[in-house]
Structure formats: structure tokens, C-alpha cells
Specification:
Helix content: 25-40%
Number of helices: 6
Number of domains: 1
Structural class: alpha/beta
Oligomer: single chain
CATH architecture: 3-Layer(aba) Sandwich
Strand order of the largest sheet: 1-3-2-4-5-6-7
Strand content: 15-25%
Low-confidence stretches: none
CATH class: Alpha Beta
CATH topology: Rossmann fold
Number of strands: 7
CATH superfamily: Alpha/Beta hydrolase fold, catalytic domain
Order of helices and strands: EEHEHHEHEEHEH
């Protein structure tokens, strides 16, 4: 499979881990959100590699079918040495597809930045069945106001004990809080980076 360009943020010293991040449904791999996350994680000695799904490379608005997204993920993992060599994850759709291949690829860990537990306004259409049996150590970082899954909703889901969820104060799907909340987008993004770096440091 043609993977197109891989965007890599190398740490200044030897990398202690490689994290592959895929973009969300409507955002490219070099979105401001992913740029910040990747650049800051590289400062913690984590190599971050980003790629784009075929539909995004072709600048189509509608995502590829799940099978094609999964194939793209598997190809990137293989190119970078196989699951045991990498941590997989991504923003929204990218993290969701990563969660679907994490166990089967034997990835070291999984990082989801804003997991789409259900479509906005459709809490009955859950995307959690595969998360019940997930074996891979996983971190989900979620905004407290995320329309794809709030703390109250997620508390009722049956999820694997391998999954840890951290909530960004008053954050939306990209962790941005309201001005009156007393929190800032930068604070939430910095906290997300700290949580991801700490999580990856625990992986064997």
C-alpha cells in the first residue's frame, strides 16, 4: 500500500518510544492540534510519526470504509517495525481505528485523543463493543464537554480494565474549554501531553 508521506517529529536525544498518530475524520495530519501534540511529545524523548489515510491524501471529505482505514494502519505499523515496536493512536477517528487493530497487532500501547464513543446527538449508536475485550494498555484523553462521549455517558459503558480515561477540564472534542471556565486550551493541551508521556513511560 502507498502510505504517502510520513511526518516524523524526532526527539533531540535517543527516542524511548515511537508513537504513531492518525488524524481525525476532517483534519489533516499536520493540523494545529496534532502539530502541538507531536512537537511537545518529541521534547519528552518520544518519536512521533504521523500519516494520512488514503481519502485524506486524495483530499476527499468522506472517510474511506473501515476496512481501508484498517489496512492503512496495518501498513504503517509494518513499515515501522511491527506492533511490539510502537504505540498506536490518534485523534478521534484515527484513535478509534487504532483501537480496532491494537490488540491484533500486538502494539505496546494505545493513545486516543478524543475518542468518538458515539456520533454527536446519537448516544445509542455506541462504538465501544471492541473496547470491552481490549488487551492493549490504553489511555483515552477526553474533554469533559465532548459531544462524542461525556463523563456521565462513559461511566455507564462496559470497558476493558486495560483502558484508563483522563478528562480535560471543560474541554470539547479538541480539549478547548469555554472562556468562563477558568481553564485554557493551552493548559489542557499541555496536560494531555504530560499524561501521554507519563503513560508511555509505563509501557514495557
Amino acid at each position: 500500500m502507498d502510505l504517502g508521506e510520513l511526518l516524523t517529529n524526532e526527539p533531540r536525544s535517543d527516542a524511548r518510544a515511537t508513537l504513531i498518530l492518525a488524524h481525525g475524520a476532517g483534519g489533516r495530519m499536520n493540523s494545529p492540534f496534532l502539530n502541538f501534540i507531536a512537537e511537545e511529545l518529541a521534547e519528552t524523548s518520544i518519536r512521533v510519526v504521523r500519516f494520512e489515510f488514503p481519502y485524506m491524501r486524495a483530499r476527499r471529505r468522506v472517510p474511506d470504509p473501515p476496512a481501508a482505514l484498517i489496512d492503512a494502519w496495518r501498513a504503517v505499523i509494518e513499515k515501522l517495525g511491527g506492533g511490539p515496536q510502537v504505540v498506536v493512536g490518534g485523534k478521534s477517528l484515527g484513535g478509534r481505528i487504532a483501537s480496532m487493530i491494537a490488540s491484533g497487532s500486538a502494539a505496546r500501547g494505545l493513545v486516543c485523543l478524543g475518542y468518538p464513543f458515539h456520533p454527536p446527538g446519537k448516544p445509542q449508536q455506541l462504538r465501544t463493543a471492541h473496547l470491552e475485550a481490549l488487551r492493549t494498555p490504553a489511555l483515552i484523553v477526553q474533554g469533559e464537554r465532548d459531544p462524542f462521549g461525556t463523563p456521565e455517558e462513559v461511566a455507564g459503558y462496559k470497558l476493558s480494565p486495560s483502558i484508563r480515561i483522563e478528562w480535560m477540564p471543560d474541554g470539547d472534542h479538541s480539549f478547548k474549554p469555554r472562556k468562563q471556565s477558568g481553564h485554557t486550551e493551552k493548559e489542557n493541551l499541555v496536560r494531555a501531553v504530560s499524561l501521554v508521556a507519563a503513560f508511555i513511560s509505563t509501557l514495557k
